[in-house]
Design a protein that fits this description.
With 302 residues, the chain is mainly alpha-helical. The protein is built from 15 helices and no strands.
Length: 302
Amino acid sequence: MKKITGYLRLMRPANIVTSVADVLAGATIAGFFGSSGFGSPGFSPSQKIATGLLLSLSTIGLYGGGVVFNDVFDAALDAVERPERPIPSGLIKRREAAILGLVLLVAGILIALWVHPVSGLLAGLIATAALLYDKWGKHHTFLGPLNMGLCRGLNLLLGISVLPAAIAQDWHIACVPILYIASITMISRGEVHGGSRNLLYFAAALYTLVIGCILAVAVGKGAAPLTLLFLAPFAWMIFKPLFTAIREPVGRNIGKAVKAGVIALILMNASWAAACDSLYLALIIVLLLPLSLWLARLFAVT
């Protein structure tokens, strides 16, 4: 049981739930899940549910594999800064973790390929971007956050790829999660030793820009009032701990801001669904929030 728990700790279950929210939001942006539920033409409700489940399994593999390799490559550093983690503590051997990560990534790519070749290509790009970040990207001040953000942007596109033709129309929306995750990754570097107030203020500005982008899309689609129902709690969830960290930029507070920012992705994705006038899917995505919060109490988010 300890071994199984160790593997789960490596996979960051609470974070994985947020990646499923990305895929569901992406599929809604593409129009796969319409405002009337499963009523858009061309696919039966059972086909839509099956496709949504397959891409959800794909992103679980991709995200899980990516974060496992993060700990594989960081084993030496974690032995100093976070010796309680599964690999440095000796609970999981580095080789065992690498095998788990590889299996998860390959499974994620193959499942996506089963859905559509374009989905498989995007899954391959996600896996590649994740490994690049784990091995090299995280060590670069500018490219690291951008690399991590790219993983999330591609994950949103993975959801959009349920209707591959929609990628040409909606690809630019993926820039928003890239910006958002880049800002979280940027401030996360202060989790251990504390951070800079200026950097936290910059993150607050980027958060504001992200909210503005989502609201602009909602206004364009005539769904601003519905979207605000989800954007308001999203803003509260990310800004409250961030302002606490600005007042006292110590590692503990920055860690809480990062954790809230990651889990709040569920509310951001619900906002995307609402901006596409799909209350049905927005509510389904929001239901993932208590699951992610519960898992965050059991397993580390960062």
